[in-house]
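[job 4471] stage=fold_predict status=RUNNING
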Amino acid sequence: MLTITQINYIREMYFDKGLSISEIENRTTHARNTIIKYIEQEDFNPPTYNRTKERKSDLVRPFVREILLSDKNKRKKQRHTAQRIYNRACQEIPNLCQISERTMRNIVAEEKSLIYNSKECFLDLDHPGGEAQVDFGDIDIYRDDQLTRAHEFVMSFPASNAGFCQITMSETMEAVCQSMATLFEHIGKVPKRIWFDQMAAAALRQKDSNGNVIPNPRFQRFAVHYGFEIVFCNPDSGNEKGSVENKVGYFRNNLFIPEPVINDMDLYNQQLLERCDEDNNREHYKLKPASLNAILLKEKELMHNFNPIPLDYAKEEKCRVYKNGHIKVGSNEYSVSPSHVGNYVTVKFYANELVIYDRHYHEITRHRRSFDKGRKFTHWVDFLNLVAKRPRAFKYVEFYKLLPSEWQDYTALLDKDDLREALYFLKHCLLEKDLAFATKVAKENMKQHVTEPEALWTTYYRMNEDQSLYIPDNDEAIPYIPGFMLTFEDYDDLMGVDRQ
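[job 4471] inference complete, writing structure tokens
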């Protein structure tokens, strides 16, 4: 295709100077058909191109647009990144996702520009090795089938860009200490200096005579035990610990979107450490091809050894047991035991649970620590003896409404004495097994139309016994045993009796 200048030159030679097509061909060396084409052309509008072939990137745009639109109603920190969208596309629509990761980033940028646009500038900093930075971030998780706000505790190592995280339900000092102790044990070392913002879990709301923030005494004991120096950043100065600020967002986008389902917090956190180890195998963004783990390994030479002696960092508080067998912690109530009514007990606060001790410091019970307000938590197994002494009140206690329908139907058939025995059985089953197993026992007896409480124990032991004693190890049929008949004469012969 000729430029507009070349086209104008051809038309001037033909129309203004009167040259023939052959003469123009000799002067310009253009093909004769090309010269005739532009001499006869009347419309010089720019050509329009109708793209009939669909690009591969267009196949995934609806998927990307749908995710970005759903993210629009979420908090900014909970939105998908281009990397996360690409990973989901490869898993959920592999037949349509036939593009590279780089192309996906371009698509996401184009689609995002129609919704929102955010530009940030970062400066490269030079960090000494052997130091770490700590911070919290907010995430959403599914726990007990409910969407719940949780926190990600992140520790990053700026020199190597490696990072690790744990999930906590609060930002209390107990959560900080438990997460840090777990991470120290995992990496086998303790950073010589750790940077914090002035979080309430680590710092007091006061300063010394030199204007320095005073650490919380309990947290200072934790730092001395493991051998690291506490360094507090200035207020509203996230740039002083930019490494962990970035790592908080990185983990949120790559590990917690979409929202994870967490049933066992301890197990999930253990698996999370393995995922962090795997993530740290990637190349360092500047020191390629070295991995983050390889650089962290060298950085550990500047750190302290891990102290294997565990530190009891729990907060203690004394509470009086009310007449309903509960104590009040904040605005929540936790059950203790009817036998401790009127006494004082010691409550130890850990990151995710409360442990209650009697006056002799013997453990009574444990509860999952709740950070909601106005909740009541009861271990009903501790109250079944009390309920059994007043069986007629059984239908009016809260525990009755929590029982499966099988147990409600079964207990409705019992008189006062039988109900008392059934409740004693239920307590034993809850201590040794669980409510699901107790329900199977009751359901089996109801199926056989058996209501006596003694039958509950018979069914319990039968269902609990080792069935492998009666089941062959292989699929071969049980060998045939021929039958035989016995008479009184056979017994007479055995006993040496002569009937004659």
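[job 4471] summary: The CA atoms of residues 222 and 313 lie 7 Å apart.
[job 4471] exit 0
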